[in-house]
Design goal:
This protein is mostly beta strands. The chain is about 10% helix and about 30% strand. The protein has three helices and 13 strands, in the order ββββαβαβββαβββββ. The strands form three sheets. The protein has an eight-stranded mixed beta sheet. It has a three-stranded antiparallel beta sheet with strand order 4-3-12, with no helix packed on it. Strands 9-10 form a two-stranded antiparallel sheet. The mean pLDDT is about 95.
Length: about 180
């Protein structure tokens, strides 16, 4: 299956979910045009309080649609944009990408992968019990596996629409695994 965009979402105000759009425009160095999280420095409400001048490594949130299938099997109805992502994909193992991987999306846009989305308690407000389903703890070593998507920065702007292809370029090794950003 070819990796592709299945939905795009944005919101100009802070809210947990983001409405789906017919298209979004990525702006180099900023994020999604008109989205509340776009900017050169941190735009996450909680983090802006204590580190407002740090670079925004969370300009774009990408989520794999396969997670919604997994969650449906556990009784949770979740659709594109519900968890606040900007770009929903299918056919690409987002969580397995290394830090620094480049995603060419559509004809022009390029997003550099910066890390994992850190799932927050608001997920339980959206759907009670959902937070425990978007991360796992390895009982042998206590390591966390975050499943709530990945974050990135826009290296090259461009329009993105549902159905657009996604091509991956991984950096030369050794690879740096994704960590929370």
């Amino acid at each position: 299956m070819e990796a592709r965009v299945t939905a795009v979402s944005s919101n100009g105000t802070y809210s947990f979910s983001k409405p789906n759009r017919s298209g979004i425009k990525l702006l180099a160095g900023l994020g999604v045009e008109g989205d509340v999280h776009a900017g050169e420095t941190i735009r996450h409400r909680f983090r802006m309080e204590y580190e407002p001048d740090l670079p925004n490594l969370r300009q774009v949130h990408l989520m794999h649609e396969e997670l919604f299938d997994e969650l449906a099997g556990k009784g949770f109805a979740v659709a594109a944009g519900d968890l606040g992502e900007n770009i929903t994909t299918r056919g690409i193992e987002l969580l397995g990408l290394p830090t620094g991987a480049l995603l060419r999306i559509g004809a022009e846009a390029v997003v550099e992968v910066t890390g994992l989305r850190n799932p927050c308690a608001q997920i339980n407000t959206f759907r009670k019990g959902l937070l425990r389903e978007v991360f796992e703890i390895d009982p042998t070593n206590g390591d966390f596996t975050f499943k709530a998507g990945i974050m990135g920065v826009v290296r090259q702007g461009g329009g993105i629409h549902p159905g657009d292809p996604v091509e991956v370029s991984v950096p030369a090794g050794p690879y740096r695994p994704l960590e929370r950003v």
